[in-house]
Amino acid sequence: MKITLTNNFHNTEINLVVLSNGGGNMFSKSQVAKARKALCGIKGCTCGGMLGERGPQYGKLTSRLGFEPQSDGRVKIFYDRND
Fold first, then answer.
1. What whole-number distance in Å separates Cα of residue 81 and Cα of residue 66?
2. 42: which residues sit within 8 A by CB, 6+ positions away?
3. Positive or negative, the Cα torsion across 19, 16, 39, 33?
4. What tens digit of pLDDT does each residue of 10-47 get?
5. What total of structural domains would you count in the chain?
6. In which domain, by residue range, is 35 found?
7. Given a cut of 80, is residue 78 above it in pLDDT?
8. What's this model's pTM, rounded to 2 decimal places?
């Protein structure tokens, strides 16, 4: 599955393939770095979240996405049920 992340401050976006395994849907450490660089990339800028995203992020069926950092540098993706 692919997810498009956006930053509505810099008007940038990136498509990433979601890694699925027994621990749920994840972005790898290298994907996190790639997303941050593509969505902002400006040293010291605080425009976005942990992935460089800004503004609502949506997945399949227009479910709003949430992100949870993992201790190993990966980021877990979940669908926000409070939307």
1. 9
2. 10
3. positive
4. 999 999 998 887 767 899 999 999 999 999 989 889 99
5. 1
6. 2-79
7. yes
8. 0.78
